[in-house]
């Protein structure tokens, strides 16, 4: 094992512990507030939001494969991750620029940030998967991307549950449902919306919308990139143990 791999395993272990932490009191309080607010939203609105997000993500999941590069030939983990970090940096700058433009455009243009940013996030995940050597032509790999997305943008309790679902993925993936409709889209959209609502609402405010949009988008892409790297490091570790 190389020195780089030893360092990565230490970072991975720390990340695993973070994913499995019990929710704090503040987590419980904020979660309770969000659930209370959600209870005031009519069921038809929840259903509409769920359907919208589901269709948006399905469109990206089944469209991005045509623009995603082929999986790389085997190289060292260090070489792969150097390229992954470059791609994350590119998408962070892209998301920041998009957030700044939509944030400066007022309320209506600010609303357009939601689907645009979602597409940028998912496209970055496709690229990261390919760079780690996983083919997104496989439905199960696309499902893994959705789990990574949930890990990055969920409350701590939901994060712990999702982490349990992807741990030992190499042995679990053969028993997954073959229909993406079986994915829990309602929880997905609520967790995602609740996670980013407060930060993104400020983007709709005149004058400060542009800088807020740029900074928030940059940080969201950073969080997603870090989560994805550790999720694929975990699979790299599992594969080594299975050999």
Output the helix-strand order: HHHHHHHHHH
| Overall number of strands | 0
Low-confidence runs of at least 5 consecutive residues: 103-111, 201-209
Estimate the helix proportion, in percent. over 70%
The total count of helices amounts to 10
Residue-averaged pLDDT? 76
Largest sheet: none
What structural category arises from helix and sheet content? mainly alpha
* Count of discrete structural domains: 1
Please give the alpha-carbon distance between the first and last residues.
Answer: 14 Å
Strand content: under 5%
Backbone shape: globular
Radius of gyration: 18 Å
Q: How would you sum up this structure, described in words?
A:
This protein is mainly alpha-helical. The protein has one domain (47-242). Helices cover 77% and strands 0% of the residues. It contains ten helices and no strands. It has helices at residues 3-19, 25-40, 43-63, 77-104, 106-131, 139-152, 156-166, 169-172, 185-201, 209-242. The model is unreliable at 103-111 and 201-209 (pLDDT under 50).
What does the secondary structure layout of this molecule look like, with pairings?
Elements: H1 3-19, H2 25-40, H3 43-63, H4 77-104, H5 106-131, H6 139-152, H7 156-166, H8 169-172, H9 185-201, H10 209-242
Organism: Rufibacter glacialis
Protein name: EcsC family protein
Pfam family, one: EcsC
């Amino acid at each position: 094992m190389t020195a780089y791999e030893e360092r990565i395993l230490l970072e991975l272990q720390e990340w695993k512990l973070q994913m499995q932490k019990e929710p704090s009191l503040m987590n419980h309080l904020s979660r309770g507030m969000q659930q209370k607010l959600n209870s005031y939203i009519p069921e038809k609105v929840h259903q509409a939001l769920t359907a919208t997000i589901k269709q948006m993500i399905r469109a990206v999941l089944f469209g991005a494969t045509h623009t995603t590069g082929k999986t790389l030939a085997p190289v060292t983990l260090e070489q792969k991750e150097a390229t992954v970090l470059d791609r994350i940096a590119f998408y962070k700058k892209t998301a920041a620029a998009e957030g700044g433009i939509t944030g400066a455009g007022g309320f209506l243009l600010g609303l357009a940030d939601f689907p645009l940013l979602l597409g940028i996030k998912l496209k970055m995940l496709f690229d990261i998967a390919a760079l780690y050597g996983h083919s997104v032509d496989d439905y199960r790999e696309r499902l893994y991307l959705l789990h990574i997305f949930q890990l990055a943008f969920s409350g701590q309790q939901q994060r712990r549950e999702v982490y349990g679902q992807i741990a030992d993925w190499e042995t679990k993936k053969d028993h997954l449902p073959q229909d993406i409709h079986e994915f829990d889209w309602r929880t997905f959209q609520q967790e995602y919306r609740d996670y980013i609502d407060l930060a993104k609402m400020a983007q709709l405010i005149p004058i400060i919308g542009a800088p807020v949009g740029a900074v928030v988008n940059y940080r969201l892409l950073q969080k997603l990139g870090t989560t994805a790297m550790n999720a694929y490091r975990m699979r790299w570790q599992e594969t080594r143990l299975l050999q």
